[in-house]
User: Fold this.
Amino acid sequence: MRFIVAILIFSFIIIFHEFGHFLLAKLNGVTVLEFSLGMGPRLFSFVKGGTRWSLKLLPLGGSCMMLGEDGEDEQVEGSFSAKPAWRRILIVAAGPVFNFILAWIMSAVIIGSFGYDKPEILAVSEGLPAEAAGLQPGDVITSINGNRVYLYREVADYTDFHQRLYASGKPVTIGYTRDGEKGEVSIVPVDSGTGRYVLGISGNSNMRTRAGILKTALYSCLEVRYWIRTTFMSLRMLVTGSVSLNDMTGPVGVVSIIGDTYQESLQDGAFYVFLNMLNIAILLSANLGVMNLLPIPALDGGRLIFLLVELVRRKRIDPDTEAKIHIAGFMLLMVLMVVVMFNDIRRLF
Assistant:
């Protein structure tokens, strides 16, 4: 059952992503040849509205294949290549944008049901810098080193993502409010005794503050912003060597995480299973949106780079050259996926 739940979550997110491409293609008069879920050989398919709808063997990925997508058929009506660059940009960008929209919708369900995690201090550790600086339980953190804070998870993540800064001995500036009054303190983090540097404050991201309709809409945006920033921060840690490829989790690892979360949530009832799966789906949807916008050949971001260059120089890059670059990028991505999947399987055993 856990495997089925994971496949359903992946499939829903991928379908929504590809539907973004499909919808904008149709709105811009581009012929969609095939809309598929999965990769590899077709299990079954049917044709409706001039589009072949397919389910393929491997339940990873999907596609929205458009007429003239690879630069051919420029003069044929309904060809992607025949459209102005700005229209093609809209079509290509629609997939990742729809992932962010989906993440926002799912966030609204969770925040509407439970509220958001207010960045409130619940406890100040005795003898640590936060106590000496005068922070108190009930203070609401509004910024860290000039970075605006809206959720308690942002406070916890800042500590995790900036351990090198904390260990440097430089003070960390904390903005906060207390009884409606604004305040600011500078704190030098200290080693907690485990090699991890801390400020000496704690909160609870599971403690939620209820929100009305407008606040739910706003904090749903902030929830998506949180996951987008978290994805970028994780990528930065990978690039700077703070984490390695061995720390990356691919589809196999995600399926395992979904399965474990599903199993643990069963004891709390179907509603909590649904909410926990929804929370994972928000992470995956926002993550897919960010990853697809990276300027890597074969991804939507790589294609957008070519389109933006075309828009600026008012001349299309040679389609054959572009296709070769995308194929090379795709092969490198496949190698990376194999490495990550190998690490996932190794961790399972």
Observations:
- The mean pLDDT is 88.
